[in-house]
Amino acid sequence: MANDEYDNDYLLLTIVVLIGDSGVGKSNLLSRFTRNEFNLDSKSTIGVEFATRSIQIDSKTIKAQIWDTAGQERYRAITSAYYRGAVGALLVYDISKSLSFENVTRWLKELRDHADSNIVIMLVGNKTDQRHLRAVPTDDGKNFASENGLSFIETSALEATNVDLAFQNILTSIYQIVSSKSLAEEGADMAAVYKSLSKNSSKAERKTEANGTVERKNKQRVLILSSRGVTYRHRHLLNDLASMLPHGRKDVKFDSKSKLYQLNELAELYNCNNVLFFEARKGKDLYMWFSKVPNGPTIKFHAQNLHTMEELHFTGNCLKGSRPILSFDGAFDSEPHLRVIKEVFLHIFGVPQGARKSKPFIDHVMGFSVADGKIWVRNYEVREVEKVKGDDNNDEDEGSGKARNKSRVGDKDTDVSLVEIGPRFVLTPIVIQEGAFGGPIIYENKRFISPNQVRADLRRAKAGRHVARMEQQRDTLARRRNLGLEDGQQKDHSGLDTRELFA
Ligand SMILES: Nc1nc2c(ncn2[C@@H]2O[C@H](COP(=O)(O)OP(=O)(O)OP(=O)(O)O)[C@@H](O)[C@H]2O)c(=O)[nH]1
Ligand SMILES: [Mg+2]
Questions:
Q1: Ligand 1 close to Cβ of residue 37 (< 6 A)
Q2: Domain for residue 336, yes or no?
Q3: What HEC string does 437-483 produce?
Q4: Which domain holds residue 26?
Q5: What is the predicted pLDDT for the residue at 448?
Q6: Domain check: are 366 and 257 in the same one?
Q7: Does 126 sit in the ligand 1 pocket, CB within 6 Å?
Q8: 94 CA distance to ligand 1 middle (Å)
Q9: Atom of ligand 1 nearest to the CA of 69
Q10: Other CB atoms within 10 Å distance of the CB of residue 444
């Protein structure tokens, strides 16, 4: 029961691009689908515009984010950059303009060059209302589509024919592809994401070796920000993490909760390739998003049991801007989704050597362990206490003695211990998306129950107890009435009352 409701309220975000020559009616198809509007003299699109609409497939809500690109040649460089994140494309031509149909070949090549190879493409012949001006016979479109493995439909944004159907068809086929993936394939997907992620970091290392010099290679930068409505505790945790990540950049609160894809642009603006986003819901629940921009993946966690550095009166401290040792539980290598999570954590929490504002010291350990399907995050200071030694200094040469002492730091003459300094929190993975705040879902935690659901169940259980108690009271009352022992009557004087009889 819990899972059904949860399934319904999470979003399967699907990105579909609209491409084709200028003036074929892309923007109008979109406005017809999302707002049921048509504009006879609409302006040519500049760059890229977005609109969304959710549709229901198999009792799941599919949220389609549609990117309407400009058909004009001069925007080609900008628009092609948007193909990459898309899982579907509507390639539109105008049935009354044969040139727009001839250009379909070129558009298809653009897609093959820039988009994901698995993209689902649908050929759309628009403006079927222009019957007298038809220049491209339906069969030509159909044949071209079947030759190239595309699906095909003819539409009219003006008369609203087949517009919904076109979008629905492409979204359904995307959904079918995504949902038909078996677990093994999901694992393979995850492995591919993991591979591309780790490839990036190993490439960075190789460069260092070739040059021989220690140049800054690990170029991770993290954009850290929260949504509106975070509590003080969330804010403190955010500040703690920001102070621990000198390669991070904190930004002001982000206004929207539905348009998370805008974070991609924001990250690019600040030259960051990672995003750590705190999303507060209902003023109490905290979701943490870890995302690699611009190519994904994105991981959404539910964060619980937050303890900030100040709150627990943790006694230790570590240098601001120092680098951590990241320690991962062996379980991280046991499941594909955990491997992806580990890799993303390495990018976000691993302070790159020589990062701006970072110090060259390593004085704390961040521990990540897996228990109960959750990830427990702790932060410890590395505390070195020099042993007070009496008999070891027998050497006459004091100078060399000192040198030796120094060289033995962390070996025999110092006690190394770990002292927890916070922050500490627990993360439950919810979903992993392949893209950056978008794209197909490659992992979904079936055991996760949203905190709303938990609260509703609790309330219902409590209400259940109350209802049971009320029913019991009513029963008692009814029984008493049957015995003629109604509250009111009892108080009346009766000649047969024992108190009267034996007074
Ligand atoms: N008759 C008819 N006209 C349409 C239809 N769809 C769009 N138009 C008209 O075609 C013109 C161009 O439409 P747009 O939707 O702006 O074209 P576009 O493909 O977005 O063009 P760019 O943004 O320049 O790439 C407008 O004047 C629309 O009114 C249709 O189905 N039938
Ligand atoms: Mg347009």
A1: no
A2: yes
A3: CCCCEEEECCCCCCHHHHHHHHHHHHHHHHHHHHHHHHHHHHHHHHC
A4: 12-185
A5: 84
A6: yes
A7: yes
A8: 9
A9: 25
A10: 16
